[in-house]
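Chapter review. Work through the record for Short-chain dehydrogenase/reductase before attempting the end-of-chapter questions.
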Amino acid sequence: MGHKEKSKERRDKRLQEISLLRTIPYADHQRWWSKETIAVVTGGNRGIGFEIARQFADHGVTVILTSRDASVGVESIKVLQEGGLQDVACHPLDILDASSITQFCEWLKENYGGIDILVNNAGVNFNFGSDNSVENARLVIETNYYGTKRMIEAMLPLLKSSSAGARIVNVSSRLGRLNGKRNRLENESLREQLSDVETLTEELIDGMVTTFLQQVEDGTWKSGGWPPTFTDYSVSKLAVNAFTRFMAKKLSERGDDEKIYINCYCPGWVKTALTGYAGSVSVEEGADTGVWLSLLPEKAITGKFFAERREINF
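C-alpha cells for Short-chain dehydrogenase/reductase:
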C-alpha cells in the first residue's frame, strides 16, 4: 500500500471515530452551556454555517445565524424549526459593510445582552478544480480576512464574561498553512516572521495581504512566493490563521473571569457551494470540529489550529 492509500485509510478511520463520538451525548459535568448560551454563526444560511447552527441548536445552545439576504435567513431558521429546533433566530449581516455590522451588534445587545460563542464562517472562494484565477482576489481578501477581523473587533465588547470563557472559532483551511508540505508560502523570511507568535503583529499580517493585492494588480504575484494553488483563498486563510494566533496572545492578558478563547479549524474539502460541490467531506463532518471546539469543556485552549478534532500545525 502506497503513502497516499495509507494516509487515506488513516483519515477514513479517524472520520469513523469522530462519527461515533458525535453520537455520544455530553455528560452533565461537561456541559458548561445551556439555552441561555448564545452562539452567533456568520454565513449560517447554508453549507457548513447552517450545519454548525443546526448542531449547536441540537446541543441546546440558542443560535443566531446571519445571512446577507434577510429572506434566505428566515427560510433557513424555518427549516431548523420544522426539524424541532426552536431556540434559533436569524438576522441580516454583510461582513463587508461596517454599518451592517454595527446594526447587528446593536440588535444583539438590545435583544440578548451579549453572546458567548462567535463562529466566523462567512467566506468566499472563486477557484474550482485546477483553476487558479486571482481575478476576485480583492473580494476574497476583503471577505475572508478583513470581514472576519471586523467581526472579531466588533463583537469583543459583546462577548460575555463567565467562568467558562467566551469562545471565538474561525473557519479556516489547511491551504493557509505556513509549513504544509504542499501549497505553502515560499517566502522564507515572511514565513519566519509569521511563525513567531511573540513578535507577530497586526501590521505584519495586514502588510502581507496588502503586498499580495499590490502584486495581483501589477501582475507580479506569480513570482511573489505565494501558495501556488487557490492562491487568493490560501492567502486569505493564511491571514486568518495568523490573526487568530495574534488575537489569542492579546486576549490572554484578560482576567480570569473575562477570558476569551480563540481558535481556528479546517473543515476539510466539504461538499458545498464554496467548493462547487466537488468536496469529499460531508457538511456534518465539516461542521463537527467547529462545534466541538466551541463547546470544549477544557477551557484554556487558545491560539490553536484544528482539523478532525485534532490540533494541527500552522
